[in-house]
Amino acid sequence: MASLETVQSNKSFGGVITKYKFESKALGGLNAQFNVFVPESDGSTKFPVLWYLAGLTCNEDTGPWKGGFLRDAADAGIALIFPDTSPRGAGVQGEDDDWQFGTGAGFYLNATADKWAKNYRMRAHIIEELPAVIQAATSIPLDFTRQSIFGHSMGGLGALTLYLKHRDLFVSCSAFAPISNPTNAPWGHTAFGGYLKGGVDEGKEYDPTELIKTVGGDAGVHILVDYGDADNFYKQKQLLPENLVAAAEKAGFPTSQVTVRAQPGYDHSYYFISTFAPEHIKFHAKFLKA
Fold it and tell me: Which residues act catalytically here (predicted)?
């Protein structure tokens, strides 16, 4: 098991946010960094876990710096984990050519195309590797029997996908302006066409609109999505939340289980995210602290 190295630690809202790094087997032996926020503790408490997945061009620092999550997480007694958005320094030809693909744009999948398969395995990194590495570092008081997940844009896609694929791991999911139907969106065509041998057809495994059709009207599903109707990417048909709504309704989910809200006048930025961050933390706390 890889050992963690502490990069930086800062007190915040009574708790501590710490950046760690380690050699990641899931990412082909590259160094990986992530942040963990732990609320103030007497040392005997293990905190439920809320994962935050950031979007295109972002990294493990974007959420804690811009999202406004820490205060509400501290108040709710919830720990936060902020992974990176992709491997770094893989040296794959073309990985730095386009902000929508490659470095900073891992799409939270396991690549199957030969060129990318060694390093671009963010699903395995988050679902399998990071929990094991963190739990091996016994000084980090997290309770992985209580987990939820949320994210923004590409990270919202990742959160929804991981939640719907791993219902045994996460009790709730929320997203800010997620790429809701990537097999029908330009970003998804770029990502799946590059990372996956089977292209867009294989990409259905990473498409929330496709995945929710397979779950059925299960009372255990708890999803909240917010997007802004002034979001340029929404207008460019990159997000397609309406398709997720239609698929959820067809699968028999009431809006109490899959809630998708259009927020008038809001865009794609962290001004939007930080506005609704408190509601999302409270949403997850309801299930994590049940």
Answer: 153, 231, 268
What is the phi/psi pair of residue 105, to 5°? -145, 55
CATH assignment of the domain containing 9: 3.40.50.1820
The model's pLDDT over 82-108, given as tens digits with 9 standing for 90+, comes to 999 999 999 999 999 999 999 999 999
Of the candidates 125, 152, 222, 268, the residue annotated as catalytic is 268
The catalytically annotated residue of 153, 172, 174, 180 is 153
Please give the backbone phi and psi of residue 59, each rounded to the nearest 5 degrees, phi first: -145, -165
Query: Is 153 labeled as catalytic in the residue annotation?
Result: yes
Tell me if residue 268 is catalytic: yes
Range of the domain at 44: 5-288
The CA distance from 91 to 141, in Å, is 35
0.85 exceeded by the pTM? yes
